[in-house]
Design goal:
Blueprint: E1 4-9, H1 17-20, E2 26-31, H2 40-50, E3 55-57, H3 67-70, E4 78-80, H4 91-96, E5 100-102, H5 112-115, H6 129-142, H7 145-154, E6 171-175, H8 179-192, E7 195-199, H9 205-214, E8 222-224, H10 227-233, E9 236-239, H11 253-258, E10 264-267, H12 276-285, E11 290-293, H13 310-313, E12 317-320, H14 329-347
Parallel strand pairs: 1-2, 1-3, 3-4, 4-5, 6-7, 6-9, 7-8, 9-10, 10-11, 11-12
Length: 357
């Protein structure tokens, strides 16, 4: 069999190769540094990098695959995507070029052979590491963990330099009451006795009640309000919307100006849901207590990003993490394991397990 060339893109944790090496007759190369095809120079560099490969392994939306990129890649036959969707891949163009686009489920495998090779398991159905990470960031910020950890390690006399903020009984505003929004809200109700307000463009109280019942909570646990009321009344606002043309900058100057001075905004969804300039101005002015951000308008953050220098300009408290919500050990390994399984199937002329086009 002819050796197939496979490029692994954006594997920041360097875990993919061990899964692909189990497939015979492939030559593997790794490219952990992300190139952005949104600029002409980035497009040229990315097209040049990809020229020799028949298969490329991608991780979510880290490297976009627009039509203009794929048109320059006549050898490309398979794009291995991690997760069940990826808005940054032009699936229509891939289909026109005869490129197979695969997806992954990220579920615990039933095959014991595959199960035993995973270092950890993905979260069970109904649970998400994004919710875990969102709560971890929120609690860390409200309990001053980053500031106090840094002070104790770097300042010999540091001790109780500020006050933490209690969360029990506060009001949690959920923007987007889907699976992740419900997961976030349920913990707020059960663990902290929080009042939950919810808003999205198509939400009603009837739908909010159905969402509560789906989480084994009584009707009325989630209260539907309009967007302005949610931002005015919430002590914590957490975003859980899919990014689209309609939802881009759905949180802008007006919403941020409506928030309490003691309130916190959490974004584990997508950076562009918030108007970046408006958020930076809000944090510079210190008109809200803080922000916990796992997602950004540019990813990875450039060395020149203002988010790398918040200690120099922010009056509000800011906690940052590098889009880690979904990056749990079990799911990441399982996604690459599924990609490798699909490579083996494709090389045998078989149908891939999850096809996106």
């Amino acid at each position: 069999m002819t050796t197939i060339r496979l490029a692994i893109f954006d594997d920041y944790a360097c875990i993919a190769r061990e899964h692909f090496e189990k497939v015979p007759n492939i030559h593997i190369e790794d490219f952990p540094d992300t190139l952005n095809p949104a600029t002409q120079d980035g497009l040229e560099a990315l097209a040049k990098r990809l020229q020799p490969y028949q298969i490329v392994s991608t991780m979510r939306e880290r490297t976009p695959f627009p039509a203009e990129l794929m048109k320059r890649l006549p050898k490309l036959q398979v794009i291995l995507n991690a997760s069940a969707r990826n808005a940054s891949i032009d699936v229509k163009q891939a289909t026109e070029q005869g490129i197979v686009v695969t997806g992954t489920k990220g579920e615990v495998p039933t095959d014991e052979r595959l199960l035993n090779t995973l270092p950890n398991l993905p979260p069970p159905k109904g649970h998400s590491s994004v919710v875990q990470h969102g709560w971890a960031m929120l609690l860390a910020l409200m309990s001053r963990l980053p500031q106090d950890d840094h002070a104790l390690k770097t300042e010999p006399g540091a001790w109780q330099n500020g006050l933490m903020m209690p969360i029990a009984g506060k009001t949690l505003g959920i923007v987007g009451l889907g699976k992740l929004g419900v997961g976030m809200a349920k913990i707020g109700v059960l663990a902290w006795g929080m009042k939950v307000l919810a808003w999205s463009e198509n939400l009603t109280q009837e739908k909010a009640d159905a969402a509560a019942e789906s989480a084994a909570l009584p009707k009325g646990s989630f209260e539907y309000v309009n967007k302005q009321e949610l931002f005015e009344k919430s002590d914590v606002v957490s975003l859980h919307l899919v990014l689209s043309a309609r939802s881009k900058s759905i949180v802008g100057k007006q919403e941020l100006a409506s928030m309490k001075k003691s309130s916190i905004i959490v974004n584990t969804s997508r950076g562009p849901l918030i108007d970046e300039e408006a958020l930076i101005e809000t944090l510079k002015a210190g008109t809200i207590r803080g922000a916990a951000l796992d997602v950004y308008w540019e990813e990875p953050l450039s060395a020149q990003s203002p988010w790398r220098t918040t200690s120099e300009w922010a009056k509000s408290e800011i906690l940052l993490s590098p889009h880690m919500g979904y990056v749990n050990e079990g799911t990441m390994h399982r996604w690459y394991q599924e990609q490798a399984e699909d490579v083996a199937r494709w090389m045998k002329g078989e149908e891939v397990a999850v096809r996106m086009n």
